Amino acid sequence: MSDKKLDRFIVFEGLDGSGKSTQARMLARHLAAQGASVHLTAEPTERAIGRLVRQALRRDFCTDSRALALLYAADRSDHLSDPEDGILAHLSRGGTVISDRYFYSSLAYQGVSEDEGFLRTINDYPHPETVVFIDTDVRLCLERIDSRGSGRELFEKEDYLRRVRDNFLRILTTLPPSVRLVRVDGAASAEEIFSTLLSQISG
């Protein structure tokens, strides 16, 4: 896997219900208020391939784990390289890009059932400058998911998410030294989490 790093690219990772999406939005607002040009994005995307991934997560159609992993990787390639709205395009214009999920999620989630070597091969993409991992207890994540009232998606089961968390913790120890890892406890209030996050990113 490539050790190439993209400056001004910040990725938020964590379990579903961890609070990462909220923190990504808060950081984007904070940086924009300071005058930065910020592009907030997420994976799966809302583009054509990303919509297929989201349909699979909702169980709108059946597919096997390897096909789903390939869909994620294809969506990510499109997400990076689109000449107008892709991550690389925004970075080339001098902006900061914040993404809610990146290829670490594929390694953690699909890694429960798929070979990690295969996943790393199809996700040979550049690393971000910073990875923010919101580490939240699995049961708390599921409580938050259930409180949304929209039902659980494909991977949102306690035993599965515990294995995903273990994968995240292991994968994040393998980051290249040039990538900054910020790990924050997701059990506190959104404001407390953001205060801790900001102090670590600014430090």
TrEMBL record:
<protein>
    <recommendedName>
        <fullName>Thymidylate kinase</fullName>
        <ecNumber>2.7.4.9</ecNumber>
    </recommendedName>
</protein>
<comment type="function">
    <text>Phosphorylation of dTMP to form dTDP in both de novo and salvage pathways of dTTP synthesis.</text>
</comment>
<keyword id="KW-0418">Kinase</keyword>
<dbReference type="InterPro" id="IPR018094">
    <property type="entry name" value="Thymidylate_kinase"/>
</dbReference>
<keyword id="KW-0808">Transferase</keyword>
<dbReference type="GO" id="GO:0006235">
    <property type="term" value="P:dTTP biosynthetic process"/>
</dbReference>
<comment type="similarity">
    <text>Belongs to the thymidylate kinase family.</text>
</comment>
<feature type="binding site">
    <location>
        <begin position="14"/>
        <end position="21"/>
    </location>
    <ligand>
        <name>ATP</name>
    </ligand>
</feature>
<dbReference type="GO" id="GO:0006233">
    <property type="term" value="P:dTDP biosynthetic process"/>
</dbReference>
<dbReference type="GO" id="GO:0004798">
    <property type="term" value="F:dTMP kinase activity"/>
</dbReference>
<keyword id="KW-0547">Nucleotide-binding</keyword>
<dbReference type="GO" id="GO:0005524">
    <property type="term" value="F:ATP binding"/>
</dbReference>
<dbReference type="GO" id="GO:0006227">
    <property type="term" value="P:dUDP biosynthetic process"/>
</dbReference>
<keyword id="KW-0067">ATP-binding</keyword>
<dbReference type="InterPro" id="IPR027417">
    <property type="entry name" value="P-loop_NTPase"/>
</dbReference>
<feature type="domain" description="Thymidylate kinase-like">
    <location>
        <begin position="12"/>
        <end position="175"/>
    </location>
</feature>
<dbReference type="InterPro" id="IPR018095">
    <property type="entry name" value="Thymidylate_kin_CS"/>
</dbReference>
<dbReference type="Pfam" id="PF02223">
    <property type="entry name" value="Thymidylate_kin"/>
</dbReference>
<dbReference type="GO" id="GO:0005737">
    <property type="term" value="C:cytoplasm"/>
</dbReference>
<keyword id="KW-0545">Nucleotide biosynthesis</keyword>
<dbReference type="InterPro" id="IPR039430">
    <property type="entry name" value="Thymidylate_kin-like_dom"/>
</dbReference>
